Amino acid sequence: MGAYNLVDAVTGDGAGGLRAEAAPARTGPPTSGETEKTARDFLAAWAAGDTAKAAGLTDNAQAATTALAAFRDSAHVEKVTFKQGTAVGTKVPFSVSAEVVLGKQRTTWAYDSSLDVVRGAEGGRARVGWQPAVVHPELTAGRTLRTGPTEEPKVAAVDRSGAELDLKDHPSLESVLSELRKKYGEKAGGEPAVAVRLEGPAGAAPKNLHVVSEGKPGKLRTTIDAAVQRAAETAVNKYGDASVVAVKPSTGEILAVANSKKTGFNAALGGTTAPGSTMKIVTSALLLEQGKAAPGKALPCPKNATYGMTFHNVENSENPRATFAQDFAASCNTAFISFAGQLPDGALAAEARDVFGIGLDWKAGVATFDGRVPTDSGAGKAAALIGQGRVQMSPLNMASIAATVRDGSFHQPYFVDPSLDGRQLARAARPLSPGAARDLRSMMRLTAVSGTGARAMAGLGGDIGAKTGSAEVDGQTAPNGWFAAYRDDVAAAAVVPQGGHGGDSAGPVVAAVLRAGG
After folding, report:
1. H or E element: which one contains 68?
2. How far is the C-alpha of 96 from the C-alpha of 135, rounded, in Å?
3. Before 497, cis peptide (omega within 30)?
4. Average pLDDT of the residues in 94-116
5. Residue 150 DSSP class
6. Cα–Cα distance between 339 and 301 in angstroms, integer?
7. In sequence order, what are the residues at sequence separation of 6 or more whose Cβ sits closer than 8 angstroms to the Cβ of residue 54?
8. Which residue in 176, 14, 209, 193 sits closest to 96, CA to CA?
9. What are the C-alpha distances in Å from 269 to residues 362, 367, 496?
10. Whole-model pTM?
11. pLDDT score of 129 more than 90
């Protein structure tokens, strides 16, 4: 007997033989039975992880394979189950329960979707009409589902005691904290938020569809003292333009930074103006260490002194019977100018660098100006002795100079402990000699209790010292007011542009900060 293969029907071939003949292609909408079975088989294959089988039950196996594989691999769906609803015509709703796993994070993502059953091109078999929306109702061509971090971890900046620093209370810290977060955020121990997101096409903002993890903010501990910072903010806001910095002499930790002008430029850290007579702290250290002066040694204060040009005192004052300590406390310019001819051109620059760390590469955690005392000769050298000429300082630099006197050694100022990133802080070549440190502290105390700084420092107990400054600036009608001082283990410096006498303008700012420091 001749053999044959019967598929759906057997017919004569018109040539006296028999052959198998395919059934005619089915037409018309899929029946309710076909719809229910096709949807059930497709969802079962998808749930079983059989991507090839599931894709084969659609009318576009290639596109379905890509989308279903991305659902597993890019969206990190480890397991998925479905609950098939009642079809409405050829549309079948279903609910999705997807177990999303990324690292140690695991969550269940539930949502509703649907599919349409259509007649396939081959044989009219019932197939799932493929659309990306089968996977998720918001998924369209050109987009994909991806599970991953939605942003960098949030970083909470806290003060030295662990209290979060709120910019509403400390607006001057906005640029500082922003820079610190960028630099140290990854080391702050936070975890980013993770979500299943709808991404693409290029240029379109991603959309979060399901939150896997809310994330955990990192905690960046700074050296800021919130109480001192609040006092600094209040003090500078009494002026249209003022800046102040406070540091801890024993360590270099920056306790406060404030500017009355809340602009992109941080004058407290990056200012580059002449410091006026506050620079006499460094000049005095040089003279004391070289044995050219002593606190009780006579040093007249004439009205004028000439070295390359003629210098004068504020209000043309004079004291022919003054001692070196009295000249310092009264801020006599001419007495200091009288030493210009006795000092090598590079002596002041070397003292500033080797003892006070000025001009070294400070690594405070944010960008800072680290001071500038150039080697000069003639009138330029003389002007530098009283903080004029080409000498440039910021309040940070002058606060550090006052701190160095208080401690005896330079400790580079910083906002974040160097152990966090292993950076090496700048180191001065040597400490201030013990004798010079003792004498300079006595002179700064004299200034604070009976000299030009006495009014501002009144009522402050403890180990105190101060120096005032009035720096003339070309084109200004009034000089910039400077004040640098310390009280126990807090040192601070402030500048009030065009503030006039430093003791009257910058002095109260510094005193308020020192008072808050305990």
Report:
1. helix 61-73
2. 9
3. no
4. 97
5. -
6. 12
7. 42, 45, 46, 64, 68
8. 209
9. 11, 8, 14
10. 0.77
11. yes
